[in-house]
Amino acid sequence: MHWFFKVLIVLGLFGFFIVFILFIRPKLLPIKQIINSEKYGIILQSERWGGVIRVTGDILVVPGARIDVDPGTQILIVTSGDKSNMDLIPLHLKSGVNAEPEDIFGVMHGEPFYDEGQKISLRFFKFYAKGTSQQPVILASDTDTKSPYDINTIWINSGILSNVKLASFRRLEIGPNVIISESSISDSGECGVCILRGKPQVLNSIFNGTLRNYIWVERASPLISGNTFLPTKGNGVVVNPKRFGSPKILNNKFQLPGYSGVYFLEGGEKKGGEIASNFFAAGDITIPCDSKVSVTQNHIKSNLRFLKSGNCVGSITIGENYWEVDSPEKIVNERVIEKELDFTVNIKEVLKSPPKNAGEK
């Protein structure tokens, strides 16, 4: 047999072995019950977690395996001494604080580096944590003096987080098939929820404390509805549509003085998203002059702020909202800020009373 065909056979067998280990074998094995245990490393079969799970190293769950978490479970992550680091990118291994004026691999000035040799990251292809209001699931660091940088990245490709209390992590990155509901997300370093693709849902949850942004959306079209965004040092929902993102931001309550409740970084979308039925108690709505996002049926006590995007000429029409001001001219003069002189903002209609269910679940 020619050597070329021998190589093909070897590569084929190796590929089948990898597929079998990652996708097929986990589905053939029984679900393993894990209670009051230590966890780290690669998980090759489906598990059900309960009690207190102490995570002492990076975790990677293979695509064919699923983690289910019982109500009342506490998943506590140590803040140093990673027993199973799987991130060997040199800049992720860097420790200390970024003293340079510019960002270094996403780490801003004054922020600590990832320090992956010590800090822990979690990677789940399928993760289902379903707590109850009386028995929430807790996912946080194991220290009393918590920091937004205790845990590095929590990555979940698909699953459900219901009645979960997440705290003290740098970023939670979710995939297209994730639903977060009735949960609390607090003390995040970069983003309480990072959404980079698909149409995940963030529903009826409370955001309390972030050093950058509560929710970051990039080229995705999530449903963000019924949430409460409490005062913090960053923005509420930041969106970079990159032409194709069209998020629906509905029925949320924003309490973010000095920051933006909703912040669109770019316009020119193929299809605009929606900002509707929200209560902006504090926190501006910031959009580019060429944005196609719809702003309607909101209760707005803050400002509408415009970003320059390309050649800001022409006009934009804003839908029906309750501004606590009767005159469209007064709204344009006092509540529409930072627009170009040659750019016209038309207020379609001013509602005389707050829209029903604005900012309510």
Topology diagram in text:
Elements: H1 3-28, E1 32-35, E2 38-43, E3 47-50, E4 52-61, E5 67-69, E6 74-77, H2 90-93, E7 122-130, E8 137-141, E9 151-162, E10 164-181, E11 184-195, E12 201-203, E13 206-210, E14 213-218, E15 223-225, E16 228-229, E17 235-240, E18 248-250, E19 253-264, E20 274-276, E21 279-288, E22 294-296, E23 299-300, E24 304-307, E25 314-318, H3 328-334, E26 336-337, E27 343-347
Parallel strand pairs: 1-3, 2-4, 3-5, 4-6, 4-7, 5-7, 6-8, 7-9, 8-10, 9-10, 10-11, 10-12, 11-13, 11-14, 12-15, 13-16, 14-17, 15-18, 16-19, 17-19, 18-20, 19-21, 20-22, 21-23, 21-24, 24-26, 25-27
Structure report:
The chain is globular. It is mostly beta strands. The model has no long low-confidence stretch (mean pLDDT 94). It has three helices and 27 strands. The strands form two sheets. It has a 25-stranded parallel β-sheet that branches. The protein has a two-stranded parallel ribbon with strand order 25-27.
Summary tags:
361 residues, mainly beta, 25-stranded parallel β-sheet, two-stranded parallel ribbon, 3 helices, 27 strands, globular
Low-pLDDT stretches: none
Helix/sheet category: mainly beta
Q: What is the string of SSEs from the N terminus onward? A: HEEEEEEHEEEEEEEEEEEEEEEEEEEHEE
* Strand fraction: 35-45%
Give the N-terminus to C-terminus distance in angstroms: 68 Å
| SS element count, helices | 3
Counted beta strands: 27
Helix percentage: 10-25%
Q: Measured on Cα atoms, how large is the radius of gyration?
A: 23 Å
Largest sheet: 25 strands, parallel
Mean pLDDT: 94
Shape: globular
